[in-house]
TrEMBL record:
Recorded topology in the membrane: Multi-pass membrane protein
Matching Pfam families: Sulfate_transp
Domain SLC26A/SulP transporter: 7-373
InterPro entries given in the database record: SLC26A/SulP_dom (IPR011547), SLC26A/SulP_fam (IPR001902)
Presence of the UniProt keyword Transmembrane in the record: yes
Protein name in UniProt: Sulfate transporter
Cellular component aspect of the GO annotation: membrane
TM regions (residue ranges): 12-31, 38-58, 78-100, 112-132, 152-179, 191-210, 230-254, 318-348, 368-395
Organism, scientific name: Streptomyces variegatus
Comp. bias (Basic and acidic residues): 479-494
Subcellular location: Membrane
Length: 494
């Protein structure tokens, strides 16, 4: 027992994580448009492979709601066999990035971009799963999903089957929300699992006409990508692979930072964690399963349940494997509206409602980046939406870094003194030139650049051109003091 001093705590925590992970693995798979068993396979790999590797000791990996929209779009566009190629390539990229020690750089990504990404995913996920709760087919694009909801509501209102399905989905969400208000002992059973069990019972007792999970069997669902699949994909798949890699990596490493704040154990080694995620995704790709990320819901449940070592997450993978091998027929009892309700609840939790207003009050630029990223994901697609958010973040940082002050001193006689201080970049060039060009041309001017910390090439060229053409005939040329040598003056010929 001394060899495994925390075996009891880890064993108990592993059971809790298994019960949390089971309905989510199945729900994410169904929402992604793939067989339910593929979600279980990813959860198993997340426990048995990624769980054994170094990186983060208490973080738990598996299929994530955050990748549901991206997986669904990829399967619709390239087909299910190509999913293995995408996940395999993403996993190999993660391994390379981890080996190059790029994991720590993901911490440099603006939190607003990541939260905007999750908010956009949450909005699309909620919209898509609302159709599923009513047993209706959702439109393909995110914006069409949202715009089509009023029409879907009208269609559902005229169908008894749709209303029954919708009621079951709504009841599932209600159970999950109210479950947290029950005594702590009752909450030992995770809310998502309790909701699924109650939905199964209600469907059986009242013989509800709702669709249930289609079961293919664990081995029957595994679809390793063949050579013909590699030959059939085009260059366009590269963008999807990059999107999978960046989003899965960012979500995992941001989750690691959050989990580290929940416990006092060893801190995450980001590069090793990225390689662990890469190893897991590589195997998932070979098996044709869903991509994995570290999942904050499972990870926080692991910490809260008292886990002390990585043994808890490995054992949760064992329990998933035993369930998939011994009780696969149980999946066929799960109503699809219940899984849709679980995903609606998960999507709602991805949207940072509580943070938006305070962020707007304190950092309006960051709040704008969050909202624009989310809207772009809904309006365009996942990859381009994230790129738009990253571009906005870079522009904002560059703009804030280019603070510059221009002070004009005119004593009425003698030369006009123009002092520039701060960082002179092309972003502030229009403002600088407007002020300088308003100076009278029949007076000598001294342009002092000694207070500049940075002067980029565009600004230097523009200032030299202004100095060369500013002075009127017969007036002394503009004198420019270089920032590198404050004591020396450089005279630019008129």
């Amino acid at each position: 027992m001394t060899k495994f001093p925390y075996l009891r705590q880890d064993f108990t925590a592993s059971l809790v994580v298994f019960l949390v992970a089971l309905p989510l693995c199945v729900g994410v798979a169904v929402a992604s448009g793939v067989p339910a068993e593929l979600g279980l396979i990813t959860g198993i790999v997340g426990g048995l492979v990624t769980g054994l590797l170094p990186g983060s000791s208490l973080q738990v990996s598996g299929p994530a709601a955050g990748l549901t929209v991206l997986v669904f779009e990829a399967v619709q566009e390239y087909g299910l066999p190509a999913l293995g190629i995408i996940v395999l390539a993403a996993g190999l990229l993660q391994l390379v990035m981890g080996a190059l020690k790029l994991g720590r750089w993901f911490r440099a990504i603006s939190v607003s971009v990541v939260e905007g990404m999750l908010a956009g995913i949450g909005l699309v996920l909620i919209a898509g799963q609302l159709y599923a709760t009513a047993g209706l087919k959702a439109p393909a694009s995110g914006i069409d999903k949202i715009l089509g909801l009023p029409g879907a509501a009208v269609d559902a209102a005229g169908s008894t089957a749709a209303l029954t399905s919708l009621a079951l989905g709504a009841a599932t969400i209600a159970v999950m929300v109210l479950w947290k208000k029950l005594p702590k002992k009752a909450q030992a059973v995770p809310g998502a699992l309790a909701a699924v069990i109650l939905a199964i019972a209600a469907t059986a007792v009242f013989d509800l006409p709702v669709a249930t999970v289609e079961v293919k069997g664990l081995l029957g669902s595994i679809q390793p990508p063949g050579l013909d699949t590699f030959g059939g994909v085009g260059v366009g798949i590269i963008g999807t692979i990059i999107a999978f890699t960046l989003i899965a990596s960012a979500e995992s490493l941001f989750s690691a930072a959050a989990v580290d704040r929940l416990h006092d154990g060893p801190r995450t080694q980001y590069d090793k964690e990225l390689m662990a995620q890469g190893a897991g995704n590589t195997i998932c790709g070979v098996l044709g399963a869903l991509p994995m990320t570290a999942v904050i819901v499972r990870s926080s449940a692991n910490v809260s349940a008292g886990a002390k070592t990585k043994a808890s997450r490995v054992m949760h993978g064992v329990w998933l494997l035993l369930f998939a091998a011994l009780l696969p027929a149980t999946l066929a009892l799960i109503p699809l509206p219940a899984l849709a309700g679980i995903l609606v609840h998960a999507g709602w939790k991805l949207i940072p409602f509580a943070k938006i207003v305070p962020l707007w009050k304190e950092h309006r630029g960051e709040a704008l980046i969050l909202v624009v990223t989310a809207v772009s994901i809904v309006a365009v697609n996942m990859f381009e939406g994230v790129l738009i958010g990253l571009a906005l973040s870079v522009v904002k940082t560059a703009w804030e870094a280019s603070h510059i002050k221009l002070e004009i001193i005119d004593k009425g006689a003698g030369p006009i003194q123009a002092y520039l201080s701060g960082n002179a970049t092309f972003l502030r060039l229009p403002k600088i030139l407007d002020s300088l060009e308003s100076l009278p041309q029949d007076r000598p001017v001294v342009l002092d650049l000694s207070g500049l910390h940075h002067l980029d090439h565009a600004c230097r060229t523009a200032l030299e051109n202004w100095a060369a053409r500013h002075s009127a005939t017969g007036t002394e040329p503009v004198k420019v003091t270089e920032p590198e040598k404050a004591e020396a003056e450089k005279v630019t010929a008129a």
